[in-house]
Amino acid sequence: MLRLRRELLEETFEHLRACGAGRRECVAYWLGPRSQDGEVSEIVHPGHSATATSYDVDGSWLNELWVRLARQELELRAQVHTHPGSAFHSSRDNHMAAIQTAGFASLVIPRFALGDVSLEGVHLERRGSDGGWQAANASDAIEVT
Ligand SMILES: [Zn+2]
Question: Which pTM value belongs to this model?
Fold first, then answer.
């Protein structure tokens, strides 16, 4: 179970819309303190390139994130990215996930996040302990407070 404040969900959509401009995919990461299981306290917008159907996070940006997470005792809990059309987890998405840790969540937001700020229509996958992905119901797995 992930928990985040409504403002953080709104902020996520704002990043995805502003950067993707209805033309390109975009990605945001949800971070939370290691001491608070499932809590999302912050959103970051990685340095990345993108096309209408893919994105690539900048490697050196990601390295800096790992350093910061270790220093501030934060965890990367979820990646949130957009698709041009419907939300699903492509095989590329399965392979491109930022981390391999069990429980890591990957959310896909349809239509470049131009719709309502909501978990409606969002596709969620969580990584299992066997390293595979399992679809989950976003409304059940994410509590927006
Ligand atoms: Zn972006």
Answer: 0.94
Task: Categorize the per-residue pLDDT at 98 as very low, low, confident or very high, splitting at 50, 70 and 90.
Answer: confident
Cα–ligand 1 centroid distance for 113 (angstroms): 12
Q: How far is the CA of 56 from the centre of ligand 1 (A)?
A: 10
Residue 116: which of 3, 4, 17, 2 has the closest Cα? Answer: 17
Q: Which domains does the chain have, with CATH numbers?
A: 2-144 (3.40.140.10)
Distances (CA, A) of 66 to 37, 69, 117: 19, 5, 29
What would the pLDDT profile of 3-35 be if each residue is shown by its tens digit? 999 999 999 999 999 999 999 999 999 999 999
Q: How far apart (Å, rounded) are the C-alpha atoms in residues 109 and 31? A: 18
Give the contacts of 25 (CB within 8 A, at least 6 positions apart): 50, 51, 52, 53, 54, 55, 81, 82, 83, 84, 112
Looking up tokens 């419907």 gives 86
Q: Determine the distance separating the centroid of ligand 1 and the alpha carbon of 3, expressed in angstroms.
A: 23
